[in-house]
Amino acid sequence: MNTSENNLDLFPTASIPKFQESETLYSWCGRFHQLSCNTSERNTSRQLFKHPSAGFRPDFPTPVGHIHSKSKGHFESLEEFITNRTMFGFYRPFLPLTRANALATAIESGTYQHVNQQLGLPASLPELSNLLKACATCLEEDFTNFSFSWWRMRNQWPSTLVCIQHQQPLIYVRSQFRHDTLKDWILPCRIQSSEFWQDFSVSETMIYRMSEITNWGHAIGSESNIFLDTTKLRYCYLLKAKERGFVAMDGSVKLINFRNAFLEWIGNCVQLPTLNFAKQIQDSNAGFIGQLIRQYPGIRHPLKHILMIAFLFSEPHDFFELYEYVSSIYNLEGDRQLRKKLKNIQDTLVNLVSNENRSVNSAAAELGVSVTQAIKLLKKTQTPYQKRPRILGSEKEMDLSKALFAGEDRARICQKLNIRKSFIKDYLAANPILKSEWEKKHKIKLIQRYREKFLNILKANPGMPVKKLKGIRGNGVQWLQRHDKKWLENNLPNLKNQH
Fold first, then answer.
1. Cα separation of 474 and 449, whole Å?
2. Residue 467 CB neighbours (<10 A)
3. 133 near 9, Cβ under 8 Å?
4. CA 259, CA 465: separation in Å to the nearest integer?
5. Three-state secondary structure call for residue 3
6. Prior bond to 63 cis, omega within 30?
7. Beta carbons within 8 Å of 280's beta carbon, 6+ residues apart
8. What does the alpha-carbon distance between residue 45 and residue 40 come to, in Å, rounded to a whole number?
9. Nearest one of 49, 47, 83, 53 to 63, comparing CA atoms
10. What whole-number distance in Å separates Cα of residue 112 and Cα of residue 59?
């Protein structure tokens, strides 16, 4: 083991181990205890933290100021020590700057209760950062190279589900060996100790999703100077949800659609210990999704934000770019302008109908929404709109009936009488005699049209082989073969020889 030549004044009989790559303070304390030859771990915890069990928390052994001040430069700066050796680096990006500073102070000189107060999270979720995890390949490499292993900080982040280096799922310490009783330190065992480790059966699809979530957690946690505001994050989620079709024209969220899409995206990953809470989105309030997109007060666990971001965004650049855009609007104009952006389809619809005197059909078509949706919104906003006049029992119905009886093309009838295609379809279905007459006469008209067009092609291309005639765009040969074969063979004698 690598150790320093100098000993801490606090522990005059101990060799001081160096921190291994990405090692947690909790892990270092466990290794220090082994080297110190203390008979009681509680005594070691008291030496390090002035408390008999304060050092046994994997996420926040506190207070760290005592041990750091006595190190005489053996460790990195206090700020780096708190960020790199405790779970502070995971929580910090999702806390306001003042709250993050208060949390750092609590870690430095407070108790675990003070830390939890500054986190401001439900009592159950902080336990996510106390699940001890490791990569099986890293373990084997450590024991081969050093004869021991250690807990790596970023593997303990709740959002880390796979090893960044080896891209394989992490394994968990079984619950009976964990810190629940807060009586000792637990250090990694060899992978062969199957009673110690618990792994989960995962599919290729799950590994892909787990890697995606892991990468997002690392991408955000690597931004040392970012403090993500809850309100701004909410508008980022809403604007992206609108882009994905999860926001209605009035700015409200289509919560069921949103929830179902998320469940499909996350799949069986909800069975993993750190993601088990995501199952709650199936309740009436959509669990954490409802918490993040509605204006609920309070701070939410970073893992909830990371899941939402991973679901809605494809690349970190897209997320940070939108967050910067939302921040610029929010800082200058507050959230009123952001609310307008969520409802801009509604405002545009009202403007088209009220100020530009557009029909509901025309306005809805331009905005890419259904007429039913548009009418519902106009009624909700009490916006007057011009209703389509009734057709049945009117002169327009008489004109429609005459046109259909004459076998006219339905698209032309729609254009001439300003009638929807769906109305004509329903009208014919309700009048089977008229439908039969229209089909018969319309076919005659089609045959005449195709014959005329084909004869013009023949006239323009005398002596051309049939094969080449078929290559002329709009020749109609195939249609005539199906519907007017005898006439075609009479006017194109060579056709029989080609089949």
1. 12
2. 9
3. no
4. 61
5. strand
6. yes
7. 287, 288
8. 9
9. 49
10. 10
Residues 243, 32: Cα–Cα separation, whole Å: 53
Question: Which residues are CB-contacts of 62 (< 8 A; sequence separation ≥ 6)?
Answer: 49, 54, 106, 107, 110, 111, 112, 114, 115
Q: How far apart are CA 329 and CA 241, in angstroms?
A: 18
Bridge partners for 97 per DSSP:
none
Query: Which DSSP category does 389 fall into?
Result: P
Tokens of 348: 């545009």
For 133, the enclosing helix (H) or strand (E) is: strand 133-134
Q: Which two tokens stand for residue 464?
A: 């051309």
> Which segments of 158-256 are extended strands (E)?
171-173, 197-198
Q: Do 55 and 26 touch, CB atoms closer than 8 A? A: yes
State both tokens at 85.
């050796």
Residues 162, 214 contacting (CB under 8 angstroms): yes
Tell me how far CA of residue 462 lies from CA of 454, 470, 498, in angstroms: 12, 14, 18
- pLDDT value for 389: 61
Question: What's the rounded Cα separation, in Å, for the pair 148 and 191?
Answer: 12
As a whole number of angstroms, the distance between CA 428 and CA 435 comes to: 5
Q: Digits of tens for pLDDT over the chain (499 positions)?
A: 444 434 445 555 456 889 999 999 999 999 999 888 888 999 999 999 999 999 999 999 999 998 898 877 788 999 999 999 999 999 999 998 999 999 999 999 999 889 988 988 765 565 677 789 999 999 999 999 999 999 999 999 999 999 999 999 999 988 776 655 567 899 998 767 778 888 888 999 999 999 999 999 999 998 878 899 999 999 999 999 988 888 887 778 889 999 999 999 999 999 998 898 898 888 888 889 998 998 777 789 999 999 999 999 999 999 999 999 999 999 998 888 888 788 777 777 788 888 877 777 777 777 666 777 778 878 888 888 777 666 777 888 888 899 999 989 888 888 888 888 888 888 888 899 999 999 999 888 888 888 888 788 778 777 777 777 777 876 777 788 787 788 877 776 655 444 4
Return the residue matching tokens 């109908």. 353
pLDDT at 482: 80
pLDDT, residue 179, reads: 56
Long-range contacts of 102-110 (CB under 8 A, 24+ apart): 104/79, 106/62, 107/60, 107/62, 107/63, 107/64, 107/82, 108/63, 108/64, 108/65, 108/68, 108/78, 108/82, 109/63, 109/65, 110/62, 110/63
CA 72, CA 9: separation in Å to the nearest integer?
A: 9
How far apart, in whole angstroms, are the C-alpha atoms of residue 365 and residue 260?
27
Token pair in block for residue 86: 């405790």
Radius of gyration of the chain (CA): 36
At which residue do the structure tokens 């092609």 appear? 457
Contacts with 5 (C-beta within 8 Å, 6 or more apart), sequence order: none
How many CB atoms are closer than 10 A to CB 480?
Answer: 22
d(CA 6, CA 14): 9
